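Subject: complex prediction, re-run

Hi both,

The earlier run crashed halfway through, so I resubmitted it with identical inputs.
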Amino acid sequence: MGTSSHGDLGDYPGGRPESTGSASSGQRDAENVCARRIEDGELEEVERCAFFEGHGALPPVGTDVVVVREQNSGRPAAATISAREIIGLLPADYNYLVACLESGYSYSGVVTLATPGNPAIITVSVAPVDA
Amino acid sequence: MPEGMLGLVGQAFVDVALPGPTVRLGGVVHAARGLAAVGVPFYCAYFAPAYLADLVDDYVAKLGGTATWSGDVVGSPNVLLVMKPQEAGDQEYVPLLRSSKQVRVDSDTVARQVRERGISEVLAFPDSEYAEPLLDALLPLGVPVSADGDVPSATLRNLARKGHRLSCFMLSTSQAHFSRDYGSSSSRLADEVVPHLADSVLLKENRGGSRFFTKEGVKTIPAQTRSVRHSVGVGDCFSATFLAMRRRFSEEAALNCASWLAADYATTATTDEFMRAAHLTLRVPPADLVRLPGVTVPWEERASVSIYVAGPDFPDVDTSLIEEVADALSYHNFRARLPIRENGRVEPEMSAARRRALARKDLELLGQCQLLVAVLPFEDPGTVLEIGAAIERGLPTLVLSPHPVTNLMLDGLPDVVTSDLDVLITGVFRAVSRRRGGGHGS
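This time it finished cleanly. Structure:
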């Protein structure tokens, strides 16, 4: 339908050219968002999650983590690889990970920051695991 | 629930988003994209200037639907300038040549098209000028007819006198007729419309979620807030995908799914990107979408949220950014409190005691507020001090700075520090939603 940015039918900035819009087109591309890394994503609800409740402390920096779905809310969460204890929940901006996990993606990474306080601050960096 | 083809009836526009410009087909085409994404067969009976007919027909065909040019628009090119695509505040839509525009619709012809094509359900997007004859022709067809647009309450009552009522009446809090006909009151809207004028009402509340009213009660659906690329046609996409998903799932699941799809529409720049995002969303079991939290801030609750707008609001300073923030907050029905405008400004000859008293009044005003939004066109010490006071009091604190913030305390302590008004407004909604403990559907 035209891709010029000067008056022809086209796209919002940063997008790819407007084309057929088939829902089935590019299934391989459909998971672009799922291929993203998350750098220093800050976790929520840390004090109410299983790890802090069980250990009374934050996981140390460098702790290996995976992304799972929290059982009650279904939210994406970071959990320890060993015991699958949830460290914290990923913010709503990362809700798309639910769809990615349903599509077969998995994510692993590490704790990059763990600062006690009110509230505690924990960040994780995760990336998709190669199949 | 109906199966088969869903009919969309409404105008096709050319949306021109500024700056850029970027140009997309809009109007009823927004709903068409939504239906294409969820795989529901659809038909568009659209009204447009003649020059658009081939473009719309081709585009809808590429989406997998069928379209018929069913009404003419004369006196206007049906071009909509969107001055602010993201709807952080008023988007400032400018319809070109609106005053000379005429939409020429033969409602009986549209009804015949719907009947002959075996359409099982209709979603109409009428203007007030032709809403009544159009709906009067569609409702006797015996298929569910929903309307998203300016349908005056008098029209709904006239239709009800003939024994007709809408399946779902859909509107947004940002549309003029919500204020004009219902005094911006959701309770009045629900009380007057359900069940005698419509089986249900879908009230779309922008970043604060949505509510679905039936005679059984109300369902509250959270909004999925993400980085918004544009807000043009997002509501239309929501309306259409809700009706489509309601065919497969419960109303609550369909509403939550539509909320996610609407967020996909707002965060993507092209139809292809939207299709990919929607494809991903549709992988998630609807029951899971219902559980996932989002942002819920009902329209009328926002008026009781006082937001202290801190900034260098001085006569010798360009205050346009402060005013833009205050206007955006008011647009979303929050109560913006500007201390200098409420309490007064310090004057050079003011005594020390009066200056102290004025400073205390500003802090008292801060104490009456639930959030602080600071506008920093430059690092004004008074504003920075107010930020500190708000943080110390435990208030959600958000900062809008067009320039990079490098100071550790200023960057590290507020909840949000951004140069983007859209991000700021989203942050306000999230903060208010968290304070009310909301976010889950009910």
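The helical segments of chain A are 27-30, 50-55, 96-102.

- K.
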